[in-house]
């Protein structure tokens, strides 16, 4: 008997993938191993399908997660997977398992968030499943999307010398979680306390509770006529996602630590929690930004873009995936274990 | 505050559907309210998307449900939703939430069943999500399928005088569950007991543990050049599904009780459990057979089919959905409450 911990989530996915036979349908273009599955749609477009499950006590804590935000987030994290293929979402299904402690009003709040996200990302809610749950709240969202055949972007097609880019800033969602967890512990110790989360921390809290799927970037890449060579969304931290791109593309990478985009609030909170902001960016997760690579000659089209930052470059030495300081020091970037 | 029980599952779905805005995408052909969502695929075909969630303690009990059968069943019940649109499945995603008590070997068993079902139904496993779970096992499957535009079959298009047909036989899965539950109680009372489930009950047990999605019927309807006027799969019992067809089509129905197909084993077990076999067929659920209607002149193509039985006919009086005995007695068929 082997425990799941010894294998880890990535090991488990790898095991499932290896045992999965080759596709039968000619319409199956790409299966397990990318942000979304790819299927034949029309002459000029591919269809995309992705799914994500959120479980109470694992992915969210209802003591500080408002149901409306949770509904929004459940859609946003799925939309993010479609964006990671350079695609745009079109339809979603939402399945919900509810224990008897939930009221109709609570379910209304959850769906108000789901609808708000559908509106924000231009997606139709087309179905789902509702069921009772013996324990907590379970949410499973599946999303359909589409992408022009000549713009689809996989994980395994980065090349040496490609510029590595990230959107937005990193580490904020992780520090938002730390703030919320601390607040919860203080509340549990003293239920009469007043919430002390200041306005200055609002950005971090929002990044954790109501992340955004970056479909805006997908539109902008199209407008700028840039097709990334590889792309993935940053759900488990920059380190983990970079390792996916490198392993699947057979490349190495150099990341310049001073280039990693970190918000001022993230810096301040990291200091307070005695965490390196770079560690938060590398291993924190849940930022739902995009990590992508472009050919060096393409990068000039992006270099003045305020929400896209070049953080390093791909190399031809697959084993060397390193973080480099300005002083020239290099440290190997390591994989994480079981990730929620 | 309103409890979920006062609303019921169907009331909840209705509430969600009513609050869902009209579709934005022209590619969204049909949303919430049928067995699967329908989207534009090619000039001659529609795409189908459906999803079902199975939760431990609600939908299955691992004390008697082998993981391999559970994997098969999770796929089969989704395939059944695609069949209910007169379509065939093409790709699935499987998301699994696992608590730490599951071993790698247990997950292997689950996926062996999933792969067996993929082979049986000619479906590609293209993705999913794996996560840890705080409580029990959670399985969420989404399935893509397709159907010729001129063969798609909705729930709301039955007409008065259409012949109501069911495939296979009904009530067996429910009695299989009763047998397994009784066995479990006996085992809990006396853990040294030997299992007493006889060979003669094998069919009932199999119907509960390893149901089949009826894609065979979809192929045969095509071969016989029959397009049903309306169709739904029987997951919650004949009564509940018939009410859906009638309510959505604006028809009434007469079901002849002596025509309802019930297997001999179901009769025997029903007698033992002091349940009417007709009640088991009407309200038992989990048979995953198909309930469909055809125009009277089309029915002759089906009347010699060994696995299709005419059980009644649609009428033009929406409020009267009745079960009729040979003696001429009629009783109104009622809706169920919250269904698992």
TrEMBL record, chains A, B:
- Which sites bind Mg(2+) 3? 35, 81, 233
Which residues of this UniProt protein bind Mg(2+) 2?
Answer: 52, 81
State whether keyword Hydrolase applies.
no
List residues binding substrate: 59, 286
The residues the record assigns to binding Mg(2+) 4 are: 35, 50, 81
Family in the record: Belongs to the thiamine-monophosphate kinase family.
Q: Mind telling me which PANTHER family this protein's record contains?
A: THIAMINE-MONOPHOSPHATE KINASE (PTHR30270:SF0)
Additional info? Reaction mechanism of ThiL seems to utilize a direct, inline transfer of the gamma-phosphate of ATP to TMP rather than a phosphorylated enzyme intermediate.
Q: State what protein this is by name.
A: Thiamine-monophosphate kinase
């Amino acid at each position: 008997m082997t425990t799941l911990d010894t294998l880890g989530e990535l090991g488990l996915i790898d095991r499932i993938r290896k045992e999965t036979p080759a596709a039968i349908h000619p319409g199956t273009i790409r299966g397990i191993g990318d942000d979304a599955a790819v299927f034949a749609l029309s002459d000029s477009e591919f269809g995309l399908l992705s799914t994500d499950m959120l479980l109470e006590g694992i992915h969210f804590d209802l003591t500080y997660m408002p149901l409306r935000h949770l509904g929004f987030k459940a859609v946003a994290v799925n939309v993010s997977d479609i964006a990671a293929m350079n695609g745009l979402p079109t339809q979603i299904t939402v399945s919900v398992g509810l224990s008897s402690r939930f009221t109709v009003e609570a379910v209304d709040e959850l769906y108000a968030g789901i609808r708000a996200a559908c509106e924000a990302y231009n997606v139709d809610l087309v179905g789902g499943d509702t069921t009772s749950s013996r324990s907590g709240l379970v949410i499973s969202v599946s999303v359909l999307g589409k992408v022009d055949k000549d713009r689809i972007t996989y994980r395994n097609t980065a090349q040496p010398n490609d510029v590595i880019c990230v959107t937005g800033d990193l580490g904020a969602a992780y520090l938002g979680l730390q703030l919320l967890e601390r607040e919860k512990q203080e509340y549990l110790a003293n239920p009469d306390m007043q919430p002390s989360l200041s306005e200055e921390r609002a950005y971090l809290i929002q990044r954790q509770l109501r992340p955004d799927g970056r479909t805006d970037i997908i539109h902008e890449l199209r407008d700028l006529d840039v097709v990334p060579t590889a792309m993935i969304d940053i759900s488990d931290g920059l380190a983990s996602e970079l390792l996916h791109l490198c392993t699947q593309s057979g490349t190495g990478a150099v990341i310049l630590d001073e280039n990693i985009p970190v918000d001022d609030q993230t810096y301040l909170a990291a200091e307070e929690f005695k965490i390196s902001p770079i560690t938060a960016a590398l291993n924190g997760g849940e930022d739902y930004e995009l990590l992508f690579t472009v050919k060096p000659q393409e990068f000039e089209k992006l270099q003045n873009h305020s929400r896209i930052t070049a953080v390093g470059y791909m190399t031809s030495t697959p084993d060397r995936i390193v973080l480099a300081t300005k002083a020239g020091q290099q440290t190997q970037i390591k994989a994480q274990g079981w990730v929620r």
